[in-house]
Amino acid sequence: QVQLVESGGGLVQAGDSLRLSCAASGRTFSSCAMGWFRQAPGKEREFVAAISWIGGRTSYADSVKGRFTIVRDNPKKTLYLQMNDLKPEDTAVYYCAGAGGRSGLDVGLTAPFYGYWGQGTQVTVSS
């Protein structure tokens, strides 16, 4: 089992940066594929970024590629999402997700891939 708690959200202006953190508890974080998703009001939850548990293989949504970076720190049991050059369309609740029992190089691009979810952190970008 893995429990996930996000932090680092807030209200920023367009062009600013934020770093989201996802603190994990439990013994299996280092062997979990991890990801970030977001959900804007009135929209479905969408994939943002993912990272494998071996080798740091990553994948990004086209809308954030080149602006966002997903990083994991296994000794600290923490997942990060560095978000640069934020845009108003990045406004959403951001969720951290984890998946155990996956191949080491797997990255999950869809919500059903993941079995563990955090409660979310709000990111609001004003124009």
The number of helices is 0
Q: How many β-strand runs?
A: 11
Helix content: under 10%
- Report the structural category: mainly beta
Strand composition percent: over 45%
- Principal-axis shape equals globular
Largest sheet: 7 strands, mixed
**C-alpha Rg, in Å?**
13 Å
**Mean pLDDT, as a whole number?**
96
* N-to-C span: 40 Å
List segments where confidence is low: pLDDT < 50 over at least 5 consecutive residues: none
Order of helices and strands: EEEEEEEEEEE
What does this structure look like?
By secondary structure, this protein is an all-beta fold. It has strands at 3-7, 10-13, 18-25, 33-39, 46-51, 58-60, 68-73, 78-83, 92-99, 116-117, 121-126. Strands 2, 4, 5, 6, 9, 10 and 11 form a seven-stranded mixed sheet that branches. Strand 4 and strand 5 (46-51) form a beta hairpin. The chain is globular. It starts with a strand and ends with a strand. The model has no long low-confidence stretch (mean pLDDT 96).
List the helices and strands and how they pair.
Elements: E1 3-7, E2 10-13, E3 18-25, E4 33-39, E5 46-51, E6 58-60, E7 68-73, E8 78-83, E9 92-99, E10 116-117, E11 121-126
Parallel strand pairs: 2-11
Antiparallel strand pairs: 1-3, 3-8, 4-5, 4-9, 5-6, 7-8, 9-10, 9-11
